[in-house]
Amino acid sequence: MDLDNNNHSLFLLYYHLVLVTKYRRKVIDDNISNRLKEIFEKIQDNYNITLQEWNHDKDHIHILFKAHPNTELSKFINAYKSASSRLIKKEYPKIKEQLWKEYFWSRSYCLLTTGGVSIEVIKKYIEKQGKEV
What we know:
It holds the Pfam family Y1_Tnp. 32% of the residues lie in helices and 29% in strands.
Protein backbone atom coordinates (compact mmCIF):
# COMPACT_ATOMS: atom_id res chain seq x y z
CA MET A 1 0.00 0.00 0.00
CA ASP A 2 1.47 3.34 -1.05
CA LEU A 3 1.00 6.07 1.52
CA ASP A 4 0.76 9.79 0.83
CA ASN A 5 3.03 12.08 2.81
CA ASN A 6 3.89 15.63 3.67
CA ASN A 7 6.78 17.01 5.71
CA HIS A 8 5.90 15.29 8.97
CA SER A 9 3.36 12.55 8.38
CA LEU A 10 2.22 9.58 6.34
CA PHE A 11 -1.44 9.15 5.55
CA LEU A 12 -3.96 7.53 3.25
CA LEU A 13 -7.34 9.25 3.49
CA TYR A 14 -10.07 8.16 1.09
CA TYR A 15 -13.58 9.61 1.18
CA HIS A 16 -16.80 8.64 -0.56
CA LEU A 17 -19.01 11.68 -1.18
CA VAL A 18 -22.61 11.51 -2.36
CA LEU A 19 -24.32 14.71 -3.48
CA VAL A 20 -28.04 14.73 -4.25
CA THR A 21 -29.97 17.22 -6.34
CA LYS A 22 -32.58 19.36 -4.58
CA TYR A 23 -35.78 17.33 -4.14
CA ARG A 24 -34.00 14.57 -6.05
CA ARG A 25 -34.83 16.21 -9.37
CA LYS A 26 -33.67 13.94 -12.19
CA VAL A 27 -31.50 16.48 -14.03
CA ILE A 28 -28.08 14.81 -14.25
CA ASP A 29 -27.29 13.26 -17.60
CA ASP A 30 -23.88 12.27 -19.00
CA ASN A 31 -23.12 15.81 -20.25
CA ILE A 32 -23.96 17.45 -16.93
CA SER A 33 -22.08 14.76 -15.01
CA ASN A 34 -18.99 15.33 -17.17
CA ARG A 35 -19.21 19.07 -16.56
CA LEU A 36 -19.66 18.55 -12.80
CA LYS A 37 -16.55 16.33 -12.86
CA GLU A 38 -14.56 19.01 -14.74
CA ILE A 39 -15.53 21.59 -12.10
CA PHE A 40 -14.46 19.19 -9.34
CA GLU A 41 -11.09 18.61 -11.01
CA LYS A 42 -10.58 22.33 -11.48
CA ILE A 43 -10.93 23.22 -7.78
CA GLN A 44 -9.57 20.05 -6.15
CA ASP A 45 -5.95 21.23 -6.08
CA ASN A 46 -6.88 24.26 -3.96
CA TYR A 47 -7.93 21.83 -1.20
CA ASN A 48 -5.28 19.07 -1.56
CA ILE A 49 -7.85 16.67 -2.96
CA THR A 50 -7.40 14.11 -5.74
CA LEU A 51 -10.32 12.56 -7.59
CA GLN A 52 -10.16 8.77 -7.76
CA GLU A 53 -13.53 7.69 -9.15
CA TRP A 54 -16.70 9.39 -10.39
CA ASN A 55 -20.15 8.18 -11.36
CA HIS A 56 -23.69 9.47 -11.41
CA ASP A 57 -27.36 8.64 -11.53
CA LYS A 58 -30.10 11.01 -12.65
CA ASP A 59 -30.46 12.62 -9.21
CA HIS A 60 -27.10 12.18 -7.49
CA ILE A 61 -23.36 11.75 -7.96
CA HIS A 62 -20.83 9.47 -6.26
CA ILE A 63 -17.27 10.69 -5.82
CA LEU A 64 -14.30 8.80 -4.41
CA PHE A 65 -11.39 11.09 -3.56
CA LYS A 66 -8.17 11.25 -1.56
CA ALA A 67 -7.40 14.15 0.76
CA HIS A 68 -4.63 15.43 3.03
CA PRO A 69 -5.03 15.66 6.83
CA ASN A 70 -5.15 19.45 6.64
CA THR A 71 -7.97 19.49 4.07
CA GLU A 72 -11.04 21.35 5.30
CA LEU A 73 -13.59 18.97 3.85
CA SER A 74 -16.72 20.97 4.68
CA LYS A 75 -15.23 24.10 3.09
CA PHE A 76 -14.30 22.15 -0.02
CA ILE A 77 -17.74 20.55 -0.32
CA ASN A 78 -19.49 23.90 0.12
CA ALA A 79 -17.17 25.58 -2.40
CA TYR A 80 -17.74 22.78 -4.89
CA LYS A 81 -21.51 22.76 -4.47
CA SER A 82 -21.68 26.53 -4.83
CA ALA A 83 -19.42 26.74 -7.90
CA SER A 84 -20.95 23.75 -9.67
CA SER A 85 -24.51 24.92 -9.03
CA ARG A 86 -23.77 28.40 -10.36
CA LEU A 87 -21.92 27.16 -13.45
CA ILE A 88 -24.39 24.39 -14.35
CA LYS A 89 -27.35 26.78 -14.18
CA LYS A 90 -25.46 29.33 -16.27
CA GLU A 91 -24.22 26.85 -18.91
CA TYR A 92 -27.42 24.80 -19.08
CA PRO A 93 -30.23 27.38 -18.75
CA LYS A 94 -32.87 24.77 -19.63
CA ILE A 95 -32.10 23.00 -16.34
CA LYS A 96 -33.56 25.89 -14.33
CA GLU A 97 -37.06 24.84 -15.44
CA GLN A 98 -36.63 21.52 -13.62
CA LEU A 99 -35.26 22.96 -10.38
CA TRP A 100 -37.04 24.28 -7.33
CA LYS A 101 -36.27 27.98 -6.77
CA GLU A 102 -33.11 27.48 -8.81
CA TYR A 103 -31.46 25.29 -6.14
CA PHE A 104 -29.35 22.61 -7.77
CA TRP A 105 -28.00 20.63 -4.78
CA SER A 106 -29.73 19.51 -1.63
CA ARG A 107 -28.32 21.21 1.48
CA SER A 108 -27.29 17.85 2.92
CA TYR A 109 -24.65 15.42 1.70
CA CYS A 110 -23.21 12.04 2.65
CA LEU A 111 -19.48 11.78 3.35
CA LEU A 112 -18.00 8.44 4.34
CA THR A 113 -14.44 7.55 5.23
CA THR A 114 -13.04 4.51 3.54
CA GLY A 115 -9.83 2.57 3.67
CA GLY A 116 -7.96 -0.44 2.46
CA VAL A 117 -9.17 -2.76 5.23
CA SER A 118 -12.33 -3.32 7.21
CA ILE A 119 -13.04 -1.93 10.68
CA GLU A 120 -12.82 -5.47 12.06
CA VAL A 121 -9.25 -5.89 10.77
CA ILE A 122 -8.24 -2.59 12.41
CA LYS A 123 -9.92 -3.57 15.70
CA LYS A 124 -8.07 -6.89 15.74
CA TYR A 125 -4.77 -5.15 14.94
CA ILE A 126 -5.27 -2.71 17.83
CA GLU A 127 -6.30 -5.53 20.21
CA LYS A 128 -3.06 -7.39 19.44
CA GLN A 129 -0.78 -4.43 20.19
CA GLY A 130 1.61 -5.08 23.05
CA LYS A 131 1.00 -8.84 22.95
CA GLU A 132 3.61 -11.28 21.80
CA VAL A 133 2.72 -13.13 18.65
